[in-house]
Amino acid sequence: MTTPSGAPRPFAAVGSARPTWRPGLAAASVAVAAILLAFVGLLAARPDVALLGAPMLLTVAYALARPRGVPAVRLREQHVRAEAGRFTGALEIDDGGASTVRLRVSTPGFRSVEALLAADARAEVAVVSARTGPQEFFRTDWIAEGVDAAFVTEPRLVPAVRVTVEPAMHALGQQPLPFRLLGLTGAHTGRRPGDGDDLHDIAPFAPGDRLRRIDWRVTARRGTQSGAATELYVRRTRARADAVVMLVVDSRDDVGADVVTWAGGIPVPRDEPTSLDIAREAAASIGRAFLAGGDRVGLEDLSVRRRGVRPGSGRAHLDRITYRLALSRPEGDPSRRLRPPQVPSGALVVLVSTFLDAQSARMARLWRASGHRVVAVDVLPATRTDRLDDAELTAYRLVALARSTALERLVREGVELVSWTGPGGPVAASVALAALRRARPAEARR
What we know:
Number of domains: 3
Helix content: 25-40%
Structural class: alpha+beta
Number of helices: 8
Number of strands: 23
CATH architecture of the largest domain: 3-Layer(aba) Sandwich
Radius of gyration: 35 Å
CATH topology of the largest domain: Rossmann fold
Distance between the termini: 52 Å
Strand order of the largest sheet: 20-19-18-21-22-23
Largest sheet: 6 strands, mixed
Strand content: 25-35%
Shape: elongated
């Protein structure tokens, strides 16, 4: 996010309207005090009292030399990353005849910071946030002041930086495969005969078989009679194929680890990821692992009715999926789906959800009943209940009981469950996904 020359590019600057100077409160107060002293001295016939206001008037006269320049404050980036973490920026000031500049920098979810800087200063600002998705940083309100604040500008605003923060991606190992591999080429060994490396069977030579596939040893044992070859045998291999994977994200829930924030009255701290941040991270990591293996990956969102991202492959497709994940968010009241989103035949469905309600679990069961292999990724953060009262704690226990019952039912009906937020975090989830690859269900071997 820098210019080709390497110089920082401004995120935002003041508008085209120039700030105007006006007399400040300090100069007006000193002038009024000097005039009062002179008036009192005249009334009391005390020249010495009247002369006390002369230095004050001279000071005001010197300070009232109106600045001729136009001050400006600009916010420039400084190593801003489009991933969750530390975001930094630099405030640069063009004095324009000003002596000092008062600043107030604010970011939603953080305490505002105020500072008084010299007019030619440069200040760095930074926040640490674990959130992903559309974010705003470093809204800056400022006022420039002349000498002794005799003249000041009207309050001005540098708009906040708008950044779409993409989820971080973890390196994962092997991933589970669908029950059926339908692609014509790829990195996996399919079940149909074709060009590949793994042996399928030995069969008599037929029109269309390549001569290099002839197995002369088998031909010598089976296809000879009285020392003469009567039939040729060929080695048939299994064709290579790719997998079709559909990532399904349930963005209807965006809850934090502290259960007291679930009602929405108390905000989740910005340094703690919510369930939606974790869901974006899990989906992006799993999608990158499949795309790195040459598979095709698509994306659906249970909270919206819009068409998702169709299955594709390549680096550009990963960027497309990551950007769509960053934009996913709860939209209005969640609507009840009668049918799950349509996915390609034979695709592996990876459902990323908190499973706090019955709809996501019902979608997983419907996909499983229609013959898809379904992997459910649980992204509910490890909950904290220390700030709940007795009634709230009872309600939470009922919700947790219903959730655990729904997950147990999913496992009984053939849905494979992986926890992204359990002990070990993404590392343990990577091991669990690799174990699913090695232990394929019985349907995959039919």
